[in-house]
Amino acid sequence: MNPIINKSKSKGAFTIVELLTVMSIIVILIGLLVPSLNRVRRYARMVRQKAQFHSIEAAMELFFNEHDGYPPSSALDGSTTGGGLPYCGAMKLCEAMMGQDLMGFHPDSRFRSDGTIDGTAATLLYGLPETDPHYVDNLRMRRGPYLPLENANAYALEDLYEDTSVLPSDRFVLCDVYARVKNRSSEGASTIGMPILYYKANTSNSLHDPAVVPTRTDDMGNIYNYWDNQDLVLLGKPSDPGAADHELAEPERFYKNTRNDKITTPRPYRAETFILISAGFDGEYGTSDDVCNYDWKYRP
User: Fold this and answer.
1) At 199, phi and psi to the nearest 5?
2) pTM of the model
3) What mean pLDDT comes out for the span 15-30?
4) Residue 135's pLDDT is what?
């Protein structure tokens, strides 16, 4: 009986060769599936980013109708002393959508980095008790927020960058859906996206020429001025501080990426409104995976 029992038991076991074969097949299948899953994941994130842009565009139209125009995107703020202080397009976008203190946009705002109207009258509510008459009157004047606060991805610049250079560190920007940057103000390991760049079209101009390099205060006839967010782009990559500058730091790259190929004459996309740019999956502005509110093709 023992030989028969042993023989029946041996039939139910796998040999080492069989196990290795199965494991090899599993490894091959995983190797084939992982790239596909990564592509699906990246595509899904891009769809989410496009949806965020759609929400911002709808909110911008509400702003346009209430304030008779889109918010400015110039590199400097609306103060007159000293020619203005650095206050980039990404920050002005957030102020228009959410308010500088995320309590709604103040209609008397001059888009000043210090949060004042004329240097003395404040549009911010910081430090005021809710019983203060100024607080109540100020809040009643607000419009919006045009985006729901919980979905706006609004973060202070100091949450992303250790050194904000010439830009005010406590001013907010809207961040994209690619959570690649560690939130510096969070005790945990939470991550946030890169700032969304905003450029408003100067419809009185007609050029889109990288050879005509604008300055902070003069777009030199170009419909879009790459300087509008240059101070922010020059802060580099917060996820990799030692890396090279963003490709979009070069004016030639900016004007290449925003040129509309469907028109023979050099002309940007959305020449009558505004453009939005997300750094995309790699967290670098100007590369082929950037997500914009227009369809474009990267040109090496």
Assistant:
1) -130, 125
2) 0.86
3) 81
4) 86
